[in-house]
Design brief:
The complex is a heterodimer of chains A (576) and B (600). By secondary structure, chain A is of the alpha/beta class. Chain A folds into two domains: 313 residues, Up-down Bundle (ABC transporter transmembrane region fold), CATH 1.20.1560; 240 residues, P-loop containing nucleotide triphosphate hydrolases (Rossmann fold, 3-Layer(aba) Sandwich), CATH 3.40.50.300. Chain A contains 21 helices and ten strands. In chain A, the strands form two sheets. Chain A has a six-stranded mixed sheet with strand order 6-7-8-3-9-10, sandwiched between helices. A four-stranded antiparallel sheet of chain A has the order 2-1-4-5, with helices on one face. Chain A is elongated. The relative contact order of chain A is 0.08. Chain B has 600 residues and is an alpha/beta fold. Among the domains of chain B are: 161 residues, ABC transporter type 1, transmembrane domain (ABC transporter transmembrane region fold); 254 residues, P-loop containing nucleotide triphosphate hydrolases (Rossmann fold, 3-Layer(aba) Sandwich). Chain B is built from 19 helices and 15 strands. In chain B, the strands form four sheets. Chain B has a six-stranded mixed sheet, sandwiched between helices. Chain B has a four-stranded antiparallel sheet with strand order 5-4-7-8, covered by helices on one side. The longest helix of chain B is centred in the middle third of the chain and has 53 residues. The N terminus and C terminus of chain B are likely disordered. Classes of the chains: A alpha/beta (576), B alpha/beta (600). At the A-B interface, helix 2, helix 3, helix 5, helix 6 and helix 7 of A face helix 2, helix 3, helix 4, helix 5 and helix 6 of B.
């Protein structure tokens, strides 16, 4: 419920729309109750006495009321729609904005597909709550209250029956809702698992087709599909109980009134006309409450969705920014002082252990080590994508935690191992580095990154559409575009996390040459190929989260057996 | 790629409805039961209400407590039947609607498996996911909410109309006209709102795609401080979606108030006309009063009917998208030649003829383009004799991957032909062709499940020992055994708990267990430490033994061992020969090999 409350707060400027919609609904409902009584007047006082002018006057009044009801109704439609979709858009934006504040550690906690549902499907559920729920939700209480007032004024004794049964109904509904609400969470999890099978299939469609595994995939889907069917059937089985429950209460109500009313008629306490009039009111009220019961189900579902949205909104970024951060990076040196790090507090082993190293401004360094030795983790600390557990990382002599994230990340360009391009043209993508870059600046960066050669071959040049995730270019081309994108930032420090692995060695050599000419920029290469780092000013070797040796190629060949082993095996195998 | 938005004509609505009904037809017995129960429940409700007046009459006539108890018990009996019927139909409807949605999801997924690769290359994953997440959902909602309501209200409308006609046909003309007005309005606003609903669903899909892409790239966004621009792009799509949704709902929401108001106006007119009829003695006051009660009742079902149409509309828009997808053309497979594996090895079966599968592959003047006017392969001719290793070398984008895409017919050639043991690949059934070709892709995608299951993906009937044998060939056995649960270790979210080198080893094992006569290898070299690299190399070498192999090569050792090396540039083969010949040529290969190839 607290989640719903948080979401209601997001109505913002649409709060007015929703209020107006509610007021209009109340007015419309009152018309609905007034018009029949006007009709009774028309018949009883007009037709019965043959008073034509009275008839016409009442008829006119009724027509005016009907037209007023139409106008309120149509206006309501507008305001309600505006409120529902405005609200949906606000929630979505709040979620998306929140997501932008997430740090790597936060992002690691969510699956992509579940984040997408939290921003689409779950919000549709919230919108539908307004679209389909608001009308009965406002009308029913109005009807109930007016109905209670009318029935009490008619016969207080009979109205007691009413008063007893309404809470019983409320209890029944409450029990169902209480029971169903947790089942909807289970249902949603089942839906998620079905979605992840579809997503996996889409991602690996080449493998599926190459191995002719369509039928196998169908079977796999069949299993989750059947599971979903079973869970959904089970959940709704309880949920739809509200209909017979409601009818039962309503019928008991009518029967009791008939019985008690009948007894009263027999004992002469009640007129026949009063009883029928009373019953018709009761029916009207109960009918409108019937609609309300559907709303409760809608609400139950939305609570599950609200919870999922709430989780996104509640997640707090793990990195805290300092109040008065350093405004600029004074130099491009990097220093690690006794740094230890692990990804989660529960992890048994540290990913990095007591790292001490210093990288001088403007130098080129290489980092080498086996898979899982902590290379990527190490460089991610420079850009403060994660915070150290112990020790400190200094950039330009200042602790990275003393910069604002923006200053730090503008100064440190990082070409991630799993780098991505986005839908849109090459130009759009490269401008991520510098949004004001003109074509000549972009082309210059491309040239340095070895990308110019293939961009020139594309008939549309910089306007070439890359497709989602950059599917329209090959892996090597993608990597070069990513490097160009990073170059456009004009950074003080550049980190390449195995960024040229899919580029052929000839092209790679060209890229390295042009990077060498970047004066004053500290370049850090993580590499598998020794050839990438062979002429670096310093090479660091990591093993199992520890810095085991460092030095130039020549020094390491003499001092480090690990390095020599790697060198020998690569020279023997060779790479193209 | 922009989403395909086809022009929608009103007849599509009928078509969509027809398709939906055909799904419902599979459960016609259950649905008939639901319909019968709905009608019983409505009848019981009406009858119970009707009972009020005879009971009162009997008391007034002096029946006393006896008559009252009798009457109330009888009504209670009717109501019990009504409640039971309601219980019955709501439960059965729940079961049936879940079955229907199950069928739709199943067909959707099955059909998706038959679509050509170009579909997946040109559609955003988020867009496709939206069929499963948004569209199927709305259909399910509509089925469970609307089907019984439509029957219930339809029955009530017909019943009330009949009663009205019997009571006073003259006044009923007015009511009929008013019904017609309501109907016309509902149709008008439905048409308009459906138009916007379709656009709404399309914007939703496009936003879905955007979020999907951006969320997947969230880390890059952080690294580039690109949050604000990203939000800007999002806001554009978000407000577009909001506008479409508001427009669609504005139309849809007017239905109920409009119908209610029309019914009030009818009520007014009928009262007035009825009054005049009473005055001119065409009817009596009592008859008019009871007639008016019915007129008033008539409004309620129409009211609910229109309310349900909201659900129906959005679900029809979703259904339309789903059926559009199901109607999409499947991958064409005009092939008839099959292949089989017997004790004497693999063989093609072409009608009566049996041709041994040797692995002789020829390209004759193959031209291919993904998009018009942009040729990726410009007349490639090459051959591989059985057991030969053909290595493709060349800069990225030269067309290496495209060649492999054509061999297994992910795409079809524009002109020229590809022959497999002398048979045009177009004549070979795709499943047979692909079964005979093993493939190790550059990006290894793993599935949720155990490592054992992932390897077995190559051959589903492989025994545990086959799987382990294949892992040994691929050099994956030792690392797998060192994992906490060995072969039963779960692979989660695309293998994020394994290193990329380990994922590649599993992919090699997957190909090894399939044991195909021809192999396509797209060597990946990214992010692998030397020791793993060494394992992969040996694994690949063992896998290649005795097979025809096409390899997109990055390793010198692979190239050196190849029987023929094709150097590709700009979609053509510019040099071919073995290592020594090409070195002697001192051309592009020579400069690539010696690392002297500089950027042009």
């Amino acid at each position: 419920m607290s989640n719903l409350k948080r979401l209601f707060a997001l109505f913002g400027k649409y709060r007015k729309s929703i209020m107006i919609a509610c007021i209009l609904l109340i007015i419309e409902t009152s018309f609905e109750l007034i018009i029949p009584s006007m009709m009774a007047d028309l018949i009883d006082n007009g037709v019965a006495y043959g008073d034509v002018s009275y008839m016409l006057r009442k008829g006119g009044e009724m027509a005016i009321c009907a037209i007023l009801a139409l106008i309120t109704g149509l206006t309501y439609a507008k305001f309600a729609a505006r409120a529902a979709y405005g609200w949906g858009a606000s929630i979505r934006e709040a979620e998306y904005r929140k997501l932008q504040t997430y740090d790597f550690a936060n992002i690691d906690r969510f699956e992509t597909s579940s984040l997408v549902t939290r921003m689409t499907g779950d919000i549709t559920v919230m919108q539908n709550m307004i679209n389909n729920g608001l009308r009965p939700l406002v009308r029913s209480p109005v009807m109930l209250i007016l109905g209670l007032i009318f029935s009490f004024s008619m016969n207080a004794k009979l109205a007691l029956v009413f008063l007893v049964l309404v809470p019983v109904l409320g209890m029944g509904l409450f029990v169902i809702v209480r029971h169903v609400a947790p089942m909807y969470s289970v249902l949603q999890r089942t839906v998620d698992s079905l979605n992840s099978v579809v997503e996996e299939n889409l991602r690996a469609i080449r493998t599926v087709k190459a191995f002719v595994r369509g039928e196998y995939e169908e079977e796999k889907f069949g299993v989750v599909n059947t599971g979903l069917q079973a869970v959904a059937t089970k959940t709704n089985r309880t949920a739809v109980l509200n209909l017979p429950l409601f009818q039962s209460i309503m019928y008991i109500c009518v029967l009791s009134l008939m019985f008690f009313g009948g007894t009263m008629v027999i004992s002469g306490e009640l007129q026949v006309g009063e009883l029928t009039g009373f019953l018709s009111y009761v029916m009207q009220v109960l009918n409108s409450m019937m609609m309300l019961s559907n709303v409760f189900l809608l609400l139950t579902r939305s609570i599950a969705s609200a919870e999922r949205i709430g989780t996104v909104l509640c997640e707090e970024p793990t990195l805290k920014e300092k109040k008065d951060p350093a405004a600029e990076i004074p130099s491009s040196s990097v220093e690690f002082c006794s740094v230890s790090f692990k990804y989660s507090a529960n992890a048994k082993e540290e990913t990095l252990h007591d790292i001490n190293l210093r990288i001088e401004p403007g130098t080129t360094v290489g980092i080498i080590g086996g898979t899982g030795s902590g290379k990527t983790t190490l460089v991610q600390l420079i850009d403060r994508l994660y915070d150290v557990d112990e020790g400190s990382v200094l950039v330009g002599g200042i602790d990275v935690r003393d910069y604002s994230l923006r200053t730090l990340r503008d100064g440190v360009a990082m070409v991630l191992q799993k780098n991505l391009l986005f839908s849109g043209s090459i130009r759009d993508n490269l401008r991520w580095g510098d949004k004001d870059a003109d074509d000549s600046a972009i082309l210059q960066a491309c040239e340095k990154a070895g990308a110019l050669e293939f961009i020139r071959r594309f008939p549309q040049g910089l306007d070439t559409d890359l497709g989602q995730g950059g599917v329209n270019v090959s892996g090597g081309q993608k990597q070069r575009l990513c490097i160009a994108r990073a170059l456009l930032k004009n950074p003080r420090i550049m980190i390449f996390d195995d960024s040229t692995s899919a580029v052929d060695s000839a092209t790679e050599k060209g890229i390295r040459e042009s990077l060498k000419r970047l004066d004053g920029v500290t370049k850090i290469f993580i590499a598998q190929r020794i050839s990438t780092v062979i002429d670096a000013d310093c090479i660091f070797i990591l093993d199992d989260g520890r810095l085991v040796s460092s030095g130039t190629h020549r020094e390491l060949m003499e001092t480090s057996p690990i390095y020599r082993e790697i060198y020998d095996s690569q020279m023997k195998g060779g790479m193209l | 790629m922009p989403r395909m938005v086809s022009a929608r004509k009103p007849k599509n609505l009928l078509y969509t409805l027809k398709r939906l009904l055909s799904y419902m037809g599979r459960h016609s017995l259950s649905l008939l039961f639901v319909a019968a129960m709905v009608i019983i429940s409505v009848l019981c409700n009406l009858l119970g209400t009707y009972m009020i007046s005879p009971i009162i009459d009997s008391i007034v006539d002096g029946g006393g407590m006896d008559a009252l108890v009798k009457g109330v018990s009888f009504t209670a009996f009717i109501y019990i039947i009504g409640v039971l019927a309601a219980f019955g139909y709501s439960q059965v409807m729940n079961i049936s609607s879940q079955k229907i949605v199950y069928d739709i999801r199943k067909d959707l997924f099955s059909h998706m498996q038959t679509l050509p690769l170009s579909f997946f290359d040109t559609h955003q994953h988020g867009d496709v996911m939206s069929y499963y997440t948004n569209d199927v959902d709305t259909i399910s909602d509509a089925l469970s909410n609307s089907f019984s309501a439509v029957i219930k209200n339809g029955f009530q409308i017909v019943g009330t109309m009949a009663m009205l006609l019997v009571l006073n046909w003259r006044l009923s003309l007015i009511v009929a006209i008013s019904y017609a007005c309501m109907f016309l309005y509902v149709r008008y606003s439905a048409r308009h709102s459906k138009k916007y609903y379709t656009r709404y669903q399309n914007s939703l899909a496009s936003l879905d795609g955007y979020i999907q892409e951006m969320v997947a790239g969230q880390k890059v966004i952080k690294v580039f401080n690109h949050e604000d621009e990203n939000i800007k792009g999002f806001e554009e799509k978000n407000s577009d979606l909001q506008a479409m949704g508001t427009a669609a709902q504005s139309y849809a929401s007017t239905m109920i108030p409009a119908v209610v108001s029309i019914s009030f106006i009818t009520y007014t007119i009928v009262s007035l006309c009825g009054g005049f009829m009473v005055l001119s003695s065409l009817t009596t006051l009592g008859a008019l009063a009871s007639y008016l009660v019915f007129v008033r009742q008539a409004a309620a079902p129409i009211n609910q009917f229109t309310q349900q149409s909201n659900f129906l509309l959005s679900s029809l828009a979703g259904a339309e998208r789903i059926f559009e997808m199901i109607d999409r053309k499947s991958e064409v497979d005009e092939g008839t030649v099959t292949c089989e594996k017997s004790a004497d090895g693999w063989a093609w079966r072409d009608g009566e003829k049996t041709i041994p599968l040797k692995g002789d592959v020829r390209f004759n003047d193959v031209v291919f383009s993904y998009e018009e006017n942009h040729q990726v392969l410009k007349g490639v001719t090459l051959y591989a004799k059985p057991g030969q290793k053909i290595a493709f070398v060349g800069s990225t984008g030269a067309g290496k991957t495209t060649i492999t895409n054509l061999i297994n017919r992910f795409y079809d050639v524009d002109s020229g032909e590809i022959l497999f043991d002398g048979i045009d690949v177009k004549r070979i059934r795709k499943d047979a062709l692909r079964k005979s070709l093993g493939i190790v892709l550059q990006d290894t995608h793993l599935f949720t499940g155990t490592i054992r299951e992932n390897i077995r993906y190559g051959r589903l009937d492989a025994s545990d020992s086959d799987v382990e044998e294949a892992a040994k060939i691929a050099n994956a056995d030792s690392f797998i055994r060192r994992l906490p649960s060995g072969y039963d270790t779960m692979v989660v979210s695309d293998g994020s708990n394994l290193s990329s080198g380990q994922r590649q080893l599993i992919a090699i094992a997957r190909a090894a267990v399939a044991d195909p006569p021809v192999l396509i290898l797209d060597e990946a070299t990214s992010s692998i430490d030397t020791r793993t690299e060494d394992l992969i190399e040996k694994g690949m070498d063992r896998l290649m033994e005795g097979r025809t192999v096409f390899v997109i090569a990055h390793r010198l050792s692979t190239v050196r061992n190849a029987n023929a090396i094709m150097v590709l540039e700009g979609g053509s083969i510019i040099e071919r020969g073995d290592h020594d010949e090409l070195m002697a040529l001192k051309g592009r290969y020579y400069s690539l090999y010696t690392g002297m190839f500089e950027l042009s």
